[in-house]
């Protein structure tokens, strides 16, 4: 059984997810922590629950999702994985992060380039990947079918969708990704998004104004 814990970090109110299983192994997804107290909140949680971080994986590489990667890699000595199509986005962050006030941003090195045909494993648990470009060219989502959930990043939100006016974004590509990848999942799958509260596939099929047929 995977336990999902979320943290809301930075002025972007970005959702960072920590997934753990009964072995104590945990996976950090989209770490958006930047301020010292945000790192402290995450590391205190890890220590309190006797967890062992084994890796960082990202849905995509926009600034609000990668702020904490380099420091957490250093703290825990763990690798970072990202889809290769998002490498240009990652490399660009250092040039614009100061414009948002993130003057201490550290660019992380990527140890593993994700292949959506692979499975992400930690402890006794695993996640399969979906390729869902549109918000970002290398955007992926992580799915667990046993527990019926998706870590969806900035693709699908409660009654909304990800922005497509950023570099690498494409509105029609995003809509196609949602319809062909996420909306083929059963209605009772929970979507844990990169911002705001969770939703479900079924709710968004019925109520998302961007995806009305």
TrEMBL record:
One of its GO terms (molecular function) is metal ion binding. It comes from the Bacteria. Its cofactor is Zn(2+). Keywords: Hydrolase, Metal-binding, Zinc. Gene3D superfamilies: Ribonuclease Z/Hydroxyacylglutathione hydrolase-like. PANTHER family: HYDROXYACYLGLUTATHIONE HYDROLASE GLOC. This is MBL fold metallo-hydrolase. It comes from Arundinibacter roseus. The lineage of its organism: Bacteria, Pseudomonadati, Bacteroidota, Cytophagia, Cytophagales.
């Amino acid at each position: 059984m995977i336990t999902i814990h979320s943290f809301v970090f930075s002025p972007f109110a970005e959702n960072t997810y920590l997934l753990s299983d009964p072995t104590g192994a945990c996976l950090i997804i989209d770490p958006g922590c930047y301020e010292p107290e945000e790192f402290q909140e995450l590391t205190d949680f890890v220590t309190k629950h006797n967890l062992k971080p084994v890796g960082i994986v990202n849905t995509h590489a926009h600034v609000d999702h990668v702020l904490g990667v380099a420091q957490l890699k250093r703290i825990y000595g763990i690798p970072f994985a990202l889809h290769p199509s998002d490498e240009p986005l990652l490399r660009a962050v250092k040039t614009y992060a100061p414009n948002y006030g993130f003057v201490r941003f550290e660019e992380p090195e990527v140890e593993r380039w994700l292949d959506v045909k692979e499975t992400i494993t930690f402890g006794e648990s695993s996640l399969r990947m979906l390729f869902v470009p549109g918000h970002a060219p290398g955007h992926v989502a992580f799915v667990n079918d046993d527990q019926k959930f998706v870590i969806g990043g900035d693709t699908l939100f409660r009654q909304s969708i990800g922005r497509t006016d950023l570099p690498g974004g494409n509105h029609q590509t995003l809509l196609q990704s949602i319809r062909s990848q996420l909306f083929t999942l059963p209605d009772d799958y929970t979507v844990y998004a990169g911002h705001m509260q969770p939703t479900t596939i079924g709710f968004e099929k019925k109520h998302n104004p961007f995806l009305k047929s």
